[in-house]
Amino acid sequence: MTEYDSRSALINGWKVFVEKRRSPGAMPFLCSKGKRERSGRQVKRLFLLEDDEGLICGLSFALKKQGYEIDAVRSAKEADILWKRESYDLAILDVSLPDGSGFDFCRKIRRTSKVPIMFLTAADEETDITMGLDIGADDYMTKPFKLAVFLSRINALLRRSENFNTPETELRSGGIAVQLLKGEAYKNGRMLDLTGSEYKLLCLLMEHPGQVLSANQILGKLWDCRENYIDSNSLTVYIRRLRMKIEDDPGQPERIVTVRGRGYKWNQTDEGE
Questions:
Q1: pLDDT tens per residue across span 32-81
Q2: Is the Cα torsion angle 34, 38, 44, 47 positive or negative in sign?
C-alpha cells in the first residue's frame, strides 16, 4: 500500500463493525479499559480525534495489528469527555472538526500533560504546520499519507517518550509545591505538616490536575490490601483535614474541589510558574 487515498485494504476487516456503529446513539470507538500485558510489556494506549469514520476504522485496524490499543472520537465534545476519563500514551489529532479545532484540543492537553501529540490532517499550509508544532505537537503529518511512514512515526514518538520521560521531581500548582524526592510539601514557601496519608492524597490529586477522581479511585490508589482498610467516610475526613492545611479558606476550597456525585479534583491554576 502506498498513500492512504485507497482505504479498502484496511477497512475490509471492519465493515461489520462499522455498520453496527452507524446505528443511532452509537458510542465512540472504544477499546477495553486498562493496559493489558502483552509479551511481558504494557500495551500502549492511543487516542485518536478524527471526524472521518472510514479513516478511523482503517487506522484503528492498522494500529491494532501493530499491538496498540486505540480509542477514537469524532468531535471535540467527545474528546473532552474521554480525555478526562481515561489516560493515554499518545494522541493523534485532526485539525478540522465538526464542533471545534484540533489546535484548541492540543492546547488543552498541553496544560496538564506531556503525552506525545501528532497532528494527522489535510491542513497542509505552512502556517498550519508551524502553529501545530508551536502549540505543543511533537509531529505533524499531512493527508494523504503513506501508512508505513505514519506507523514508523508513531513508533518513534513512543520510543522517544519512553527514553526521555523521566519522573517528575516536583509538583507545583496554586501556591502548593511538593518536593517528591524529599517527601515534603510547601504552601507559599512554608513547609506543611502533613501526615503520610495526607501527603499521598495531595500528591495523587496534584498529579491529575483538572481530573475528577472518584472515591473508589482514590482509595484504590492510596490504601490497598497492604494497609488498613479505609472507607469513603474516612476519605471525607482526610479531605477535610488536608483542606485545613492547604486552603486559604477551608470552608470555600479553591484547590481541592468537590464534584457532587462524582468525587474530587485538583483545581488547576495558572501562575506563570
A1: 344 444 444 578 999 999 999 999 999 999 999 999 999 999 999 999 99
A2: negative
pLDDT tens, position by position, 104-137: 999 988 887 778 999 999 999 999 999 999 888 9
The beta strand positions in the chain, using DSSP E, are: 37-38, 41-42, 45-49, 69-73, 90-93, 96-97, 100-101, 117-121, 139-142, 170-173, 176-179, 184-187, 190-191, 256-259, 263-266
Strand, helix or coil for residue 149:
helix
Q: Hey, what's the cell of 254?
A: 479553591
CB 212 within 8 A of CB 83: no
This model's pTM is above 0.85: no
Mean pLDDT on 19-44: 51
- Residues 155 and 200 occupy one common structural domain: no
Domain end position, chosen among 121, 136, 164: 164
Say how far residue 119 (Cα) sits from the centre of its chain: 16
Side chain identity, residue 191? M
Which CATH number belongs to the domain containing residue 81 in this structure? 3.40.50.2300
Boundary residue ending a domain (164, 192, 217): 164
CA 188 to chain centroid, in Å, comes to 29
- Overall size of the chain counted in residues: 273
Q: What percent of the chain has pLDDT over 70?
A: 77
C-alpha of 1 from chain center: 32
Cβ contacts of 141 within 8 Å, gap of 6 or more: 118, 119, 120, 121, 149, 150, 153
Please classify residue 12 by burial: count the beta carbons closer than 10 Å to its beta carbon, then call 0-12 exposed, 13-18 middle and 19+ buried. exposed
Question: Which percentage of the chain shows pLDDT scores above 90?
Answer: 51
Assigned C-alpha cell, 199: 501527603
